[in-house]
Amino acid sequence: MTAYPSPDLSDLLDIQSGVISRQQATSVGLPPSAIDNKLRYGRWQRLQQGVYAAFTGTVDRQAQLWGVVLRAGPKAALSYRTAAELHGLVPVAQPGGLIHVTVPVGCRTGLITGAAVHYTRSVDTARHPAMLPPRTRVEETVLDLIQVSPSFDEAFDWLCKAVGRRLTTPELLRSTLESRPRMRWRADLVIALSDVADGARSPLERRYITAVERPHGLPKALRQAKITIGGRSCYLDNFYREARLAVELDGNAFHPPERRWADSHRDNDHAGQGILTLRYSWADIMNRPCEVAAQVTELLRCRGTAVELRRCGDSCAVRSVPKGACAERRRG
């Protein structure tokens, strides 16, 4: 099984959350009969075939993870959503939740209770070299989860979570992507990683880039632009610095009153700095991207930025924004 610096029973149990395999126990000098007696009298608990919890009472999530990975074999690594849990990409699952583990192609694990077993030819490079319990690297974990995502929006969200929480970088994700010959949405992921590198941190922010800004010829905004108001730092989703125009995106369809008040208070603070804030919902970006582009274009022009709004396609809902529209509105 997995090798450790000190072949001592107590050290193994400390490292492995009180869990040990039969092979490990005998290799450090515990006779098989002693193991059987501990199980018979309830001092140890059987977690998997040949894997035991060397304690009584409740078996927590960490012990269950060790039980699965030890049962799966010396080259096994926790993976997919379980690795995401360990890396901090998703909340820790409750004891008893399904555990994902990856093993080499051709490995015969036998029955592993409560586990989904995945196979790969590159488990040695996919597994993190130091973290315990053994797990796939965060970049491999993210790409595994993208591979099984039902939509590209969910796939993009995994990129945002990993980079936004500073668990990895777009460059490392891109390098790992290049090492995988078969990957869903490869071309889209390459573009998406560039958007993440520029500061996009949610599927809605990406939709603003791909449905509003880029196809209509708007200038490229600064993403997650840092500004300081009253000695306090805050970040704008999209900031057109020359025009002092911010575009904020609200992903939730419904905001409680306190959230709406906080948004209004923040927009008022921006106004005190000469920043005009436009705020759009998911429905605006999804259903009315052309109208949003036209409104942003008009305000950019009003604030001195030269913009040529272009149609995003034959079905574009807005043909153009007259260059004099801003002045005419002011005269009106």
Q: Could you say which structural class the secondary elements and strand pairing correspond to?
A: alpha+beta
Given the structure, what is the number of helices? 15
Unreliable residue runs: 1-6
| C-alpha termini separation | 80 Å
CATH topology of the largest domain: Endonuclease, Chain A
Strand content: 15-25%
In angstroms, what is the radius of gyration?
Answer: 27 Å
Largest sheet: 4 strands, mixed
Using the alpha-carbon principal axes, give the shape: elongated
CATH level-1 class of the largest domain:
Alpha Beta
CATH architecture of the largest domain: 3-Layer(aba) Sandwich
Strand order of the largest sheet: 7-8-9-10
Structure characterization notes:
With about 325 residues, the protein is an alpha+beta fold. It folds into 3 domains: about 10-135, no CATH class; about 140-200, no CATH class; about 205-330, Endonuclease, Chain A. Helices cover about 45% and strands about 15% of the residues. The strands form 3 sheets. Strands 7-8-9-10 form a 4-stranded mixed beta sheet, sandwiched between helices.
